[in-house]
Structure formats: structure tokens, C-alpha cells
Amino acid sequence: MSSTTYSVELAKSSRASCKKCKTKIEKDAMRIGTHTPRDDFDMTSWNHLECFTLPRKMVQQGVTAHDFVRDNLRDESGDILPSRADEIAEALEAKKAAVAKSKEDGDSESSAGKTWLADIKIRYDATQDDNPSASKKAKDDMSILVETYGAIHKLSIADLKEILQWNRQHVTGTKPVLMIRVLDGALRGRLARCTLCEGGRLKLHDDGATVTCSGAFDEERNVRVACQYHGKAESAPRWQPWLMQMPTKEEDEEMDRLIAEAKGEVPSASDSDPAIAGLIKQANKLDLELHNNEGIKKATAAIYKLLKSCSKLIDLPDDEGDAKHKVGAMVAANRSQPVADIVRSLVNELGFREAKDDKAAKKQAALKDSCKCPENLPVVSAFQALAEFYFKEGNRNGGVVHSKVATALQNLDFVVTPENAMSLGKGAKTKVANIGAKSAEKILEFVSTGQIEKLEEKRANEA
To answer: Fewer CB in a 10 Å sphere around the end CB: N or C, the chain?
Structure first.
């Protein structure tokens, strides 16, 4: 039987998905095919060029990326090879280096976590000696960790997972990893939901120092929204308290409330809120007829004026035309309802300005915490916003692409400028993984003008 063969081509359509990242391969994008012979046919799988890794056996045999392109890669069209051979080899070398670094970082991360855990164990063992001075020390961070270690080091994996489940935390991993998560929680509190993607589950890495988020599932659009949050454990958002015993019904309900709030599932406007009660009281005084167009027009103006008086509380659009359009649409759709109910519905739809401002501030803080170079925060925010728009529209591919660009920009340790923006998408020494030529053009557009035309279009359409 013949061995596996490899080919390169420009995708003929957008139907095939990448075996590695699972996203669609856009038409005309370069892709590498792996053709594995079976009894009666060849099984073919496709990868984006940037997702393809050199076969392990070839690497072990000393085959380089350039060797692979020259000796193993076939181009039936003749449009790609040999003219773009160097470009392909450079991309494969970059992927090989990224895989090696990831493994190295993973080994280093695991080692760092185990070292931290071992240090706590040494200090715990020291407290078991008859040392009277140990009990007199103040309860600092280390003493909290040592005390918690004493309570959990003999627990089984099942018991440790149960503690993590009580606190709604990740429960996968070896016993040392689970212990690190429990120790971190005892010291700093429960990891809250991600403020960047609004609801994703934060995960503490094995090193006990790094927290990331893989994204959240948008149930309304049936799509997973990727997230590039990457921060330090000590500055990650937290909820209190950390529970070392089964939560009560009230504690469970409070955790449910916090998670729902983090996902944007804000409770409906309640008349028990004095500000809302006052607004509803004024709405009940309005004498409005909603049975004809003229009545709807007058009602729109009156309700707009009422909400405008509470604009510091209600997040009414600043543009009067946009605000009246929202009010008018709600009035027309609910003309058979009492005016007070229409006002409640508007408050629920518009939301509260303070809550939205607080959410926006937390999102910016999360992005800033994730940026290696703080000066790049504005351009990272722009690409994050673009990604969110694409995800909301159901365009997962567009969302993933722009999310990956945002992550790549986050990890840069130098400032992006008009002079170096285009080089991020090309060149053997300057190209950054997951940033292509078109993305580099958008980056240049932003660092030169302070905005991206496509993003402004989407913002205008949403408004």
C-alpha cells in the first residue's frame, strides 16, 4: 500500500473545514491536503496553511520545512509551487516553532505549579513540629495556604472535585492541579465569570498564576464565542466567599444570580426599586390614546420626555432621533398594553446606564490586564469589538479570525505603529501568527486614523 501524500492548493470553495481549528477554509485560501490511502479510496483531510504541522515521523527523521515542501508537497495546478515554496516553508517553520514553544511553556507551567505546591507542603510540614512561634504568626497569605493544605492534602481526587463543584470551578486535572485550584480559591475567592466575553468560565492554569477564558456559548445564536482573556491569578475577577463545605440553598441561589448577571441576564425592572417605582407612577399619570397613528406619535413624544428625565438612570441613546425611534417601535408593538407596562418594557430593553458603564469598564480592565504592551490596548479593543459583531451576526469564521488577531496583538511586547503595522502580516522575520495581509491593513488603518471603517459601519447599523 502506498504511503500518505500531501498536496497544496487554493480552496475551490468554502465548504471544507480545517481539521485542526474546525473552521471553514475560505475560497481561494491556501490549504494543505493530507491524502491517506484506504482499501478502495484515498481519505483526504484539509488544513489551513497556518494550522498544518509537519508529520511527527518526518520531524524525527530530521526533515525540515523546506525539505517537506521540496520533496513531499505536490501542486497539481502549478500555480503555487515552486513560486511560493519559500512562503509555505516559512509558515510551516513558524508553526513548528510555535508548537515547540507551546510544549515548553506547558512543561514550564506544570513545573511552576508543582514547585508552588511543594513550597506550601514544606511550610505545612514545618508547622507540624512543636514550634510555639509558628502559631503566633499573623494569618498572612502563606499561612492561609498552609492551613488549607493541611485540610485537603489527604483528600481523594473525588473529594477535591466536590469542593471545586461547590464553587462552580473547573474539575479536570490531576490531584496536584486540583489542589492548586482549591488553594487558589481559599486564598483569593472563586474565579468569577469572564468580564471580557460576558459569561465564559475562567480557568486557572497548572502554574497557579495564569488565568484564561476559552469563550462562552451564545445560546440565542447557537454559536460559541471565542475569548482571548489572559490574565494573572491575583488580578482575575473573583466572587466571595470560597466554600469548603456544601453550599446552602441560599448560597447556591446567590451563585446562580451572579452567573446570570455576568451573562447579561439582568432581572426585569422592579417596582420595588424607588427610581423605577417613581418612573412607573409618572407613566400611570399619562393620559394617552394608542388607537391611531396620531395617538402613537403623541405617546412616543411623551414617553421619550419621561425617559429623558431619567437619562442618568436609563441608558437612552444620546441621539434624539435614535431614542425616539426605539420608543416609537416599542409603543407601536405594544399599543394594546397599559402605558406603564410599555415603560417597563423599554427600561428592560434599554438597560441601566450605570450597569452598562460598569460592564464596559470591567471589559476594558480585562483587556488591559491581558495586554503585554498597554499601548496596544486601543487596537486590541477594536479587533475584539469586531469579533463580537461577527459572532453576534452568526459569522463564526469572521469572529474567530478577528478574535485570533486580537489575541496576537495582545501578546506583542512592542507598540504597533503605522511604520510596523503592515509587517505584522508578512515577512519571514516580522510576520505574526494569525495576522494576515488583510488584517494587517485593518491594523494600519486603526493606528493611522484611530478607527476601522468596517467596525464603524457595524456600530452604525446596530444603532
So the answer is: N
| Buried-exposed string 188-200: b where 16+ CB fall within 10 A, e elsewhere | bbbbbbbbbbbbb
d(CA 76, CA 80): 9
Strands of 192-340 (E only): list them.
Answer: 202-204, 210-213, 216-218, 223-225, 230-232, 238-239
Asked if residue 403 lies in contact with residue 227, where contact means CB atoms within 8 angstroms, the answer is yes
**DSSP category for residue 422:** G
The C-alpha cell of 226 is what? 471565542
Is-contact 221 241, C-beta < 8 A?
A: no
CB 29 within 8 A of CB 21: no
Confirm if 366 and 231 have CB atoms less than 8 A apart: yes
Q: Would you give the distance in Å from CA 339 to the centre of its chain?
A: 40
d(CA 208, CA 232): 9
Query: Which residues face 75 on adjacent strands?
Result: none
Give the span between the Cα atoms of 372 and 409, in whole angstroms: 9
- Residue 427's SS3 state is coil
Pairing of strands 5-10, 73-74: parallel
For residue 244, give the 3-state DSSP assignment.
coil
Residue 331, phi then psi, degrees to nearest 5: -65, -45
Residue ranges for the chain with pLDDT beneath 50 = 1, 130-138
Can you give the pLDDT at residue 354? 63
**Is 446 within 8 Å of 378 (Cβ atoms)?**
yes
CA distances, 31 to each of 8, 146, 249 (Å): 6, 53, 53
Cβ atoms 230, 220 nearer than 8 A: no
Of the candidates 459, 304, 320, 425, the one whose C-alpha atom is nearest the C-alpha of residue 50 is 425
Could you report the per-residue pLDDT of 189-225, keeping only the tens digit for each? 999 998 877 788 999 988 888 898 878 776 666 666 7
CB atoms within 10 A of CB 272: 7
